[in-house]
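Checked the freezer inventory, then went back to the computational side. Two predictions to log before the end of the day. The first one is the construct we discussed on Monday; recording sequence and tokens without edits.
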Amino acid sequence: MKYYYIIIITLLSLQSLFSQEITGQELLQNAISYHDPNNNWLDFNGEFLITMKTPNNPTRESRVVINLPSEFFYVKAKRDSTTTEYTLDKTDCIIKLNGAVDISEENKKKHNLNCERANLYKNYYTYLYGLPMKLNDEGTIIHDDVERKSFKGKEYLVLKVAYDKSVGSDVWYFYFDPDSYAMEIYQFYKTDSNGTVKLDTGEYILLTDTTVVNGIKLPRDRAWYYNKDDKYLGTDFLEN
């Protein structure tokens, strides 16, 4: 009888171990099912109000509009007495400073106003607020091995993501709750010319609270820190 119980315990332990095994793609799809259960992201058409607070700087308030089917992007940001606006409507690019489209070359340089920056903002907001769904994009390399890792006292399933050279050279790590598959942290590092991660670079972002936009669960608050010394950089707060 004693050996019978030993066999049963062993089998249960093995079953538990096997049930915890998950591939990178499986983890990603589970996370997307949690955040975007109705597959709304590809047809996303909505807007965000974002307040960014950083140490020793005035608060920045931004209104962001993303319409993926129409290939439309708009961001209006205000800090102190300066307001900038970028509109990308397919291939058209419109820039405004304090409501005016007639901007001097001096002010263009002073405020770094150009269409390259407009596209940078588009990619930035679409990527971060489209996670984890954006990890299905072409050029994304999902590592098959999933690591269990403790971060600030909690255990996570960690997905490692890299990109084709044509897309980017940073390496990202996404931390998911092992039960719900909610995304709670992401982290990125720069790489050297050989593709090796430089551990003294990059940032990690802590995601807290959740809001629902167009049926998609998004992190409401994002706090940014340097990897190298845990220095706090700021927090952006999402309203909708």
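The second is the one RB wanted added to the comparison set:
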Amino acid sequence: MKFSTTALEGVWLIEPLRHHDERGYFCETFRSDLFEAATGIKPSFVQENESLSGRNVVRGLHYQAGSAAQAKLVRVSEGAIVDVAVDLRVGSPTYGRHICVELSADNGRQLYIPRGFAHGFAVISDFARFQYKTDNYYCPQAERTLRPDDETVAVRWPVARECMILSPKDMAGCSWLECEKF
């Protein structure tokens, strides 16, 4: 596996090594020992989730507040997305900044997003199957949403605002000024 730092402190891009032959390929998508050796983080994932979304669906920007905050290891097993992480950690050198990374079944990339980030994605293929591990259980009372179209954060989504398919919850999310920071 190849581990690379990103423009956001604590966010890692992970590229599993695929072994190809006439049958297809095989790869390890996660190994705790390699993850810890490369990042210095000892992961303890407790929950795994999956979503299936169609083209132009934008999910997020989601996070959990307080002691329910979650680190995530995200990947796409079918299709393609543009994944977004926004740093909400007050005092972080990358506070308020965000990154956009294309994750797809073809490129096999994964993104590790530590606690203290809002996270979301936009589907850029006909559909995408998105999978992620978390290091803390989902807590509905702690769930928060930063509006994906917030002007202060200014994410350059690959989907025009008028074409975005958003849930009512995501459309009603808070602005950057209103959202809880860590």
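For RB: The chain has a mean pLDDT of 96. Helices lie at 32-39, 168-171. Let me know if you want it refolded.
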